[in-house]
């Protein structure tokens, strides 16, 4: 495959060769016709040879018209190129013929459709969120284990979707740590050990957590999900991940409610002391 420079050189050389061949053949034709006009004249000479004059004049006019046509085309092309803007601008309908604009729009729409149809669907990697869902690109195991150190309530919003998104790290709100929040409620909570079970580490919080119909607290479900994330030989499923995240949210909500009640109680006690007659 020839390069662009080589192709241009060959094209220009072929054009020059074609011009030279045309000029030579035209000159030979002119010379042959004039010599024939001289041979067929009564005097067999150039003097008063009207036919030779007509033939020569015709070729002179042909040469002038050819040169004029070439110059005209060269000037027209140069003016056309000069009218093209050197700066970038968006092409709209007024810049192109209707057929060209329609073709560009059709190709753009076709490219968009091809790109859309090429998106992965109904495919997933075990232990990761499926594309096109709220969990897309999220590692279930890593995200669930991160809640051990990041189990705090993100905000006091009543919007459950916002709270769940916050647990997945999808919004930029501040997090509180589970140990710190637990120590606010129960100051003597032990330090978190690397491989301690959640049910054992947060056992002091069991009386503060609500129970379901089976007598299980959110801490029991959270402990089971954490154990699966730590020790299971297979990746977490989406249902197991949602169960663990929901339990983490409920634990955090309960701890925050207790913390707010403690703050409210402290405020009332402080106000009672300030309003005491012994002040």
TrEMBL record:
Localization of this protein: Membrane
Membrane-crossing segments per the record: 12-38, 50-71
Lineage, opening ranks: Eukaryota, Fungi, Dikarya, Basidiomycota, Agaricomycotina
Membrane topology according to the record: Multi-pass membrane protein
Protein name: Defect at low temperature protein 1
Keywords per UniProt: Membrane, Transmembrane, Transmembrane helix
Primary location class: membrane
Top-rank taxon, per record: Eukaryota
Similarity comment: family membership: Belongs to the DLT1 family.
InterPro entries: DLT1
Primary role: Required for growth under high-pressure and low-temperature conditions.
Gene Ontology CC annotations of this record: membrane
